[in-house]
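Repro:
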Amino acid sequence: MSITIENLKAIATQQRKLSSQLPNEFIAFITDYQLKDDKRGKESLFLNLKLNDGEAIVKYTSYHILDLANALEKLGFTSLEGAKGKPLKWKHKSYLMGYPRPLPIEKV
């Protein structure tokens, strides 16, 4: 596969955001996910989200994962794979520890 200069420019202009840089509410869909150890050795879920203006990678630790699971279940999903590629409205939830994390609140 040949990669053109235009391909490289398109990749470079995609904006990657941290969870803390996302608006309080936004629409995005899950493009990928990984369950792996973070840099501190804690098992964490990393969600890749696609937004209109770029991408974001959001980390959920054991402290946040149950809320994410409950939010997805409330929307009728039984797995992350089932939610992958579906446009969802997300809203940040604040926690006593750490940064707020976005949770899906409705199907779009």
